[in-house]
């Protein structure tokens, strides 16, 4: 029917059955969201995702047999358009950056308020990236070289590779990349640069291609790493 938007199809992947039940109840009450499958670990998720064809996967990290990091990387190789939203109790640097570098479109903690979780599912389905505020702080700190803890020193580099990537951008692409890394939306960038929204989207797409990334969080990580060593 005209004017009817298809619901966002979601698969839940978590080894805790009670958590999955709670998420199903929560998301099923959200207008325009449909839970189409569940899995208890990343291995089971393989068949569930293949059968259900979801738009979004809510992915736990620490699970038996196959964890969420491995499952995220595997599923996004098969279906690059899939939006993986990590939902976990763990927020150490290594796990956060590991999930984002593998292509996860968002990283939320399980204490996220219900209405924010529903909004996040809709957001990642629409192509946006979502991070819990505390997680965003950690990502920026690590990218800036200020991280601490077991994962802080493992991922950051001296920024040389990232600076080479940044140097491949045109002047306008650089402006757009810096704005995205600062957290600006496409609409904000368009207004600030006095260009159309379509033009901004085109520039963002070119930056993705040159950086070899597929979401705004990964783009921001490249920019912050490049500026850290400058």
In short:
The protein is α/β, with parallel strands linked by helices and 230 residues long.
Secondary-structure topology with pairs:
Blueprint lengths: L7 E6 L3 H12 L4 E7 L2 H11 L3 E4 L8 H11 L4 E6 L4 H9 L4 E4 L4 H12 L4 E2 L1 H11 L16 H8 L3 H11 L4 H8 L3 H15 L4 H13 L2
Parallel strand pairs: 1-2, 1-3, 3-4, 4-5, 5-6
Q: Residue share in helices?
A: 40-55%
Number of contiguous helices: 11
Elements, N to C (H/E) = EHEHEHEHEHEHHHHHH
Task: Supply the CATH architecture of the largest domain.
Answer: 3-Layer(aba) Sandwich
SS content category = alpha/beta
Give your account of this protein's structure.
Residues 146-156 have low confidence and may be disordered. The relative contact order is 0.11. Helix 1 links the parallel strand 1 (8-13) and strand 2 (33-39). Strands 2-1-3-4-5-6 form a six-stranded parallel β-sheet, sandwiched between helices. The protein has two domains: 8-142, 3-Layer(aba) Sandwich (Rossmann fold), CATH 3.40.50.2300; 160-228, Winged helix-like DNA-binding domain superfamily/Winged helix DNA-binding domain (Arc Repressor Mutant, subunit A, Orthogonal Bundle), CATH 1.10.10.10. The N and C termini lie far apart (54 Å). The protein is globular, with a radius of gyration of 18 Å. With 230 residues, the protein is of the alpha/beta class. It is built from eleven helices and six strands. The longest helix is centred in the last third of the chain and has 15 residues, at 197-211. This is Response regulator transcription factor. Residues 162-227 form the HTH luxR-type domain. It comes from Curtobacterium caseinilyticum.
């Amino acid at each position: 029917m005209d004017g009817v938007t298809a619901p966002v199809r979601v698969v839940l992947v978590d080894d805790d059955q009670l958590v999955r039940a709670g998420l199903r109840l929560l998301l099923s009450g959200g207008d325009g969201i449909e839970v189409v499958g569940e899995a208890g670990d990343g291995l089971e998720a393989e068949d569930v995702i293949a059968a259900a064809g979801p738009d979004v996967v809510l992915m736990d990290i620490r699970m038996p047999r196959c964890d969420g990091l491995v499952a995220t990387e595997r599923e996004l190789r098969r279906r690059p358009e899939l939006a993986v939203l990590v939902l976990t109790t763990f927020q150490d640097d290594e796990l956060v950056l590991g999930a984002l570098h593998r292509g996860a479109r968002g990283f939320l903690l399980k204490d996220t308020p219900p209405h924010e979780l529903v909004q996040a599912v809709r957001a990642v389905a629409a192509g946006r990236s979502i991070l819990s505020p505390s997680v965003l702080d950690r990502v920026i700190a690590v990218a800036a070289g200020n991280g601490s803890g077991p994962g802080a020193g493992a991922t950051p580099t001296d920024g040389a590779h990232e600076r080479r990537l940044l140097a491949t951008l045109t002047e306008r692409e650089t402006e757009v990349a810096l704005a995205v890394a600062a957290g600006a939306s496409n609409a904000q960038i368009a207004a600030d640069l006095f260009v159309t929204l379509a033009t901004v989207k085109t520039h963002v797409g070119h930056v993705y291609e040159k950086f070899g990334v597929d979401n705004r969080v990964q783009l921001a990580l490249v920019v912050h790493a490049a500026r850290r060593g400058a």
